[in-house]
Amino acid sequence: MPEITVEVTPEGRNRSRLPDCFTPGATLLQWLYQRGRLEEIRQTLRVQRQGGYCTVDVIAFLVTFFSAGGESMRECAEEMQPWRQQIAGPIGLKSLPHQSSVSRFCSAVRDGELRSQWQRLLFDACDGYSVLKQPSTGHCDADGVRWDVFDFDPSTLAVRQRGLPSDSETPEAQRRAAETAPGYPGRHRGETMLSRMLLRHSGSGLWLGVEVHPGNGDIRGAFERSVQTTASICKQATPSKLRGIVRCDGAHGHVPYITACQEAGLDIVTRISHYGLFEREDIQHHLASAVWTPVSDSTSGPRREAAELGEVTLTPDKSTRRKDGKPYEPVKARVIATRAYTDNDKGAGIVLNGMLHELFATTLSPSPWPPEDVATLYLARSDIENAIEQAHELCNLGRIYSYHLPGQEFITAVGLMVYNLQTTIGTQIAGSPETVPEQSLRTSTNTPDTPDNADISNAMVPAIELRKAENKLGQLMDTLDWDAITGPLQPAWQRPHGWPYLCCPRGNLLKPNRPGTHASNKNPRLYLQIPHAKCNVCAASDECEVGSASNRRISTTVSPEFAEYADAAVVELRKAQNKVPKETTEAEPKQTRPAIQQKNRQGKGFTALWTPSAPPAQRPMFDMQVPLFLPAEARKVARCALSRIEIFVTCDIPTPPNKPRLVASDKKEKSKRRKSWSERLRYNDLPNNAQVNLRVAIEPDNAWAMALYQSGGQTQLEQAA
Q: Which of 83, 441, 549, 612 is deepest in the core (most CB within 10 A)?
């Protein structure tokens, strides 16, 4: 057998060497300290409290905690206890606070006290612009122009409330989560909840804002503040013209949210639930002849097709008001429709003719952003859901650290700061690529196969011929005096330029007949008439301004030459209409989405001003380019570099002389006056006669860490074997 000997020496462990779990946090603090970021935090992030540690002291503790990857703050603080001076000394602090001090600090934070400084903490302090300016972090539209996409997403943390026993022998029960409130928790389980409003740059993966509210919270106020943060960051990236897109879910597809983006000079992409638009005959007719283009996806789910629906004017409810009490003005939004064959009955949308239809609203221009690209852009919103899970795994942000919600917001912001710091440092270590893949040219697209017709290109021919016939007749009818024809009617009657139909306020179409001859003057007349069956089911039939219930039509006198051309155009239009296959629902199985239809669908009384989209002037040149930057890989590079460092710190901090306990040092202490901000900051500053020796062992190929500590002045460097 081999001989094994064990030698035990009485020497203790090296008390100057920081444990490996605290080395990443100490290095991140050194990075912030050398760039002056900690000093900026000292001067700007201020919490008014009676005394004790200041904001920068608590941030130093939290950066160390989140970098260590622990789950329990109390256990991490106990492990950190022997090293509090060694971690704090190199950044000019006397000691790190204990977990109880952090808890008291968070309880002193007032609602909104630090909220205006999150951009400084999450973006400026982390040097976020160095990542944002990378060519691979932006979206490129069909014209090759770069855009920055920002995700706004409210997420929830649910709180279970167990039954508390109560009898005469026990004091009155008090719940610690008293600041949480009931709300809609989504897939989470809990009686009360808190909401986190998160803002994130999609391409770089940087977190830019966070707010914590009880229940479902003030979503509109948080959104408006996030929009202002987005506009401020976009001005740094593109000062000449803002090219920022705010991407959010269907809860924000309403007038106040679209208005907030428009007033800030940004664009928005969101989902809307105005499925009553599909009941309008004019929109049904438009979609029947629309060109449906396949939406790029991962091929793992239902294959979607997108079509341009047009421009819809959204009118706010009378009770929807601004903060100053003034009403919102109606807004115009471009609407995209998608459809897909699917057996899944979960999620948003409405089933029509066996296909799931969804609606998306945006303010982006149609030329650089065709409908299939808008749909692709919105569907990529799931990226933020993955990022939230990564933040939970990396920094354990899925926990509630403070039941005082402003304190929880502060802790969450610092955790997201550590997340951003790793992304920034990983980008600096890996370096910026000299070239990025070129944007590919857009090729002709074929609609994906469907169960009913594999050769969809042939099926689209009748719809294209119908659109050509409508354009021909519409251009001819543009020459008529429509101000005189529709003058007596209310403004809601529409006849978009280039359209051969007149649309009533309820969305029904008055279609042209072949020009006839009036019995009295023998002059040709053009009639626009609506089928009698449409008026019978209309709720506003009794108040209609056109004709009688049995004969809803208007007419105008035309010239013989016009009548001749119009007659031929109407005949051509009817032939094209007869070639379009009629969609039948006789054999359609019973739909399995009644709850969704009833909840999302607007009824017969829903009206909206709608203008059909004009065909694009030219075909898009490029395919939309998504960001190719890999933020998770950047964080992996940073963690690898941070873990290959050994730090040795010795601190000699003289003990201050004991002062008389019963005698005040000056008049201010005697009267217990409020301390100035500079006096509060000096509470945990290193004294002038303190001595801190920092020795670092770095592997030879860790050039980033070598450069960091070489710029640190008196740091002693050693190359690790």
A: 612
